[in-house]
């Protein structure tokens, strides 16, 4: 698998996932699965923020991955266990540093940046990147920096980590209660992040796992 195939696959799938989850949420057939009732959405206002941010995050991910390929990725043989280790190490590190960044910067000195995201009280999947461009860029830079610290990692490890990082950010804004037994941890993260959007003081700062919030006492 080549780097460009990985990037195109994950980024195109992200766009499709956003649309699929949004259409599911606004459909009346999902009424029994909505965490909060459907509110009126100004799609033009959302598009004015989301589309430039989608281009920015896509350009940063592609540019940084190609520019830093030698530091980020290795081309050697990799076992399945090696891929799992790459993914877990990258995402655990990201989850912990993102937690600190979100709690102490975005809800501290950089609140003026983060407040835009919190204007959305009942998010849908298409508002996952309804953020200030600075917040968007900081998130992508942090993710790539974590790969650099852990890495160089395998291309498969990069593909899985990028997919989880990108797709989970979309899913936790979906407003949908996933009831399948295997998706319960995902449903828990959706509810947890919905609670975060209800107030700037609602805790629940981590976005990949609940572990940092549970360890540092900010889970609500
Ligand atoms: Zn959010
Ligand atoms: Zn926040």
- What is the element string, with H for helices and E for strands? HHHHHHHHH
Instruction: Measure the end-to-end span.
Output: 41 Å
Low-confidence blocks of residues: none
- Find the structural class using helix and strand composition: mainly alpha
Largest sheet: none
Mean pLDDT score: 95
In this entry the ligands are: zinc ion
Give the total of beta strands: 0
User: Whole-number radius of gyration?
Assistant: 17 Å
Summarize the amount of helix as a percent range. 55-70%
Count the DSSP helices.
9
Principal-axes geometry comes out as globular
The fraction of residues assigned to DSSP E strands is under 5%
**What multimeric state do the chains show?**
single chain
Domains, number: 1
Subcellular location: Membrane
Main location: membrane
Protein name: Fatty acid hydroxylase superfamily protein
Pfam families: FA_hydroxylase
Walk me through what this model shows.
The chain has 220 residues and is an all-alpha fold. It has one domain (3-31, 44-215). Helix content is 66%, strand content 0%. The chain has 9 helices and no strands. The protein has helices spanning 3-26, 43-67, 69-72, 80-109, 111-118, 133-150, 155-171, 184-198, 211-215. Helix 1 (3-26) packs antiparallel against helix 2 (43-67), helix 2 (43-67) runs parallel beside helix 6 (133-150) and helix 4 (80-109) crosses helix 5 (111-118). The protein is globular, with a radius of gyration of 17 Å. The termini are far apart. 30% of the residues are buried. The protein binds zinc ion (2 copies). Residues 117, 123, 173, 193, 197 line the site of one zinc ion (ZN). The site of one zinc ion has 5 residues, from helix 8.
């Amino acid at each position: 698998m080549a780097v460009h195939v990985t990037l195109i696959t994950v980024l195109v799938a992200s766009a499709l996932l956003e649309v699929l989850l949004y259409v599911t949420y606004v459909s009346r057939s999902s009424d029994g699965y909505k965490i909060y009732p459907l509110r009126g959405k100004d799609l033009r206002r959302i598009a004015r923020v989301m589309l430039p941010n989608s281009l920015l995050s896509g350009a940063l991910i592609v540019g940084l991955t190609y520019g830093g390929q030698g530091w980020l990725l290795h081309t050697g043989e990799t076992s399945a266990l090696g891929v799992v280790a790459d993914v877990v190490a990258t995402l655990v590190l990201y989850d912990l540093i993102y937690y600190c960044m979100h709690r102490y910067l975005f809800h501290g000195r950089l609140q003026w940046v983060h407040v835009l995201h919190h204007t959305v009280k009942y998010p849908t999947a298409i508002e996952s990147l309804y953020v200030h461009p600075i917040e968007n860029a900081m998130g992508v830079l942090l993710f790539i920096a974590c790969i650099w610290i852990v890495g160089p990692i395998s291309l498969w490890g990069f593909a899985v980590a990028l997919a989880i990082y990108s797709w989970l950010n979309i899913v936790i804004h979906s407003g949908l209660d996933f009831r399948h037994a295997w998706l319960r941890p995902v449903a828990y993260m959706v509810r947890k992040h919905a609670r975060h959007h209800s107030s700037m003081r609602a805790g629940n700062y981590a976005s990949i796992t609940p572990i940092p919030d549970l360890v540092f006492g900010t889970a609500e």
